[in-house]
Amino acid sequence: MTAVACGEVLFLQGGSVRIEGHLELVAAQGGVRPVRIPSEYWSKFPPSGESLRAIASTASGVRLRLETTGARLTLRVRCTHIRFGDAPGARNRFVAQIDGVTVATAEAPVDHVLQVTIAGDEATTTAHRDSSLVEFDSLPVGEKTVTVFLPQGVIVDLLDVDGDAPVSAAAETAQPVWIHHGSSISHCVEPELPTSVWPVVSAAITGLDVINLGFGGQCMLDPFVADAIAATPADVISVKVGVNIVGARSMDQRTFVPALHGFLDRVRRGHPDTPIVLASSILWPGSDDNPGPSGVEFLPDGGVRCYTDGDPADVAKGALTLANSRRHVEHVVTVRGSAGENIAYLDGLALYGPADLPRHPLPDSLHPDADLYAEIGRRFAHFVFGEDGLVPRSTLGW
């Protein structure tokens, strides 16, 4: 059985759009906000859950699809940029595409700033203006479907849409639905363009309708995320897990595997037969064999270096390393696959490993840049959805 095409039609004063890649639209001061964890689960966030709430409200992979004959398209939006502690917020852009080709981009305005403490226990909003206009000019005239990708590291409230010709929601796609869950390396806030998000790259290559549940710093095998996935129609699911758990030292060698089984068990309540790809983490250079917690070094040139800062002696006492987490993820797939489950393992080192270091050094020793994210997207498309992949695109029933 194939999933119902994701997305819903949003009617605004100036026209309508189809919005995709989210799990819920919540009311937001005269408009709506796409979020990637449904609000019914927010009460289950930890007491210091403001970081998770902010990250789940950003728009990675969220896009609008609309039809128009005009040359100009205008969105009225309210963009909230997030600052965690003293770190500057992500500065991403809106991207307009036609038939998969980028025809225009626009800066994400800074309408509000959400300041979140490092501990995640407090969040305060500073309003600079109520809303802004994001304009795409010089679009090709004539009938066309325009896809607008929202900035992936920003909270976006949609207030209205307009153009120099009528704007209406595009029809549903006939593409398989792919749900992906992962860490900041799936969220991909670092590149300027939301089309550089690697799950978006993979989806474009393979013709999939992606819902990207990549949450920076928040891929912790939370039961409510598993429940949200279970409740969402999908033709294929992937989970890429390890680095946040090691970096936060939130689990150890004793607890990681049972927690991963429990997460998958909850997903299976809604997807008993859906193919699942379980992927381990990419290389963390210099930190793969050391336990967390993570640390940050501020370099003289203004750069930063992220690293694991735990005591190597703790590994013998049960502390989890990223290298260990890969073996544990593969173990879970072996156990479940042997019992007949439709599940496959992808080694994260196939997406980025030691051989890639000379060509693709990581700017902060942890997160890729735009070029490497694109390469990871291409590799994931090949290893997972290629004809010889773990879940060939041709097997998804469309």
Structure description:
- The chain has 398 residues and is of the alpha+beta class.
- The protein has two domains: 8-169, Jelly Rolls (Sandwich), CATH 2.60.120; 177-395, SGNH hydrolase (Rossmann fold).
- The protein has eight helices and 21 strands.
- The strands form five sheets. Strands 1, 2, 5, 7, 8, 12 and 14 form a seven-stranded antiparallel β-sheet that branches. Strands 6, 9, 10, 11 and 13 form a five-stranded mixed β-sheet that branches.
- The chain is globular, with a radius of gyration of 21 Å.
- The N and C termini lie close together (10 Å).
Descriptive key words:
SGNH/GDSL hydrolase family protein; SGNH_hydro_sf; hydrolase; globular; seven-stranded antiparallel β-sheet; 21 strands; SGNH_hydro; alpha+beta; Jelly Rolls; five-stranded mixed β-sheet
In short:
The protein has 398 residues and is an alpha+beta fold. The protein has helices at residues 50-56, 184-187, 198-206, 223-230, 243-248, 256-270, 322-338, 370-385, and strands at residues 8-12, 15-20, 24-27, 32-35, 63-68, 73-84, 93-98, 101-107, 112-116, 123-127, 132-136, 144-149, 155-163, 168-169, 177-182, 209-214, 236-240, 276-279, 294-298, 304-308, 343-346.
